[in-house]
Design brief:
There is one protein chain. With 82 residues, the protein is mainly β. It is 9% helix and 22% strand. A hairpin with a 3-residue loop joins strand 1 and strand 2. The radius of gyration is 12 Å and the shape is globular. The model has no long low-confidence stretch (mean pLDDT 84).
Length: 82
């Protein structure tokens, strides 16, 4: 499955997509590209929602694509992780 190179953001228009996702339940944002970052997307969001799918096409999950601008505006780095 290929990742999109850009997405249509309702707020910012056509934007590059760099692996950012948002939780539909609490709107926290995460990245899927660099596992070493404090903002890397866990399987389950801190709000309790299943953020990422167990497998491609597998079950319900809360992550939705998020543009880089929305990510930058809403990112929350946990204390002691930056």
């Amino acid at each position: 499955m290929n990742s999109p190179k850009s997405i249509e953001c309702g707020e910012h228009g056509q934007m590059p997509w760099n692996g950012e996702v948002t939780c539909c339940k609490c709107e926290r944002v995460f990245t899927t590209h660099d596992v070493s970052l404090a903002t890397h997307a866990p399987m389950r969001c801190p709000c309790g929602a299943r953020l990422m799918p167990k497998a491609i096409g597998g079950g319900k999950f809360s992550a939705r694509l998020c543009c880089s601008e929305c990510f930058a505006q809403r990112v929350q780095v946990p204390r002691g992780s930056a």
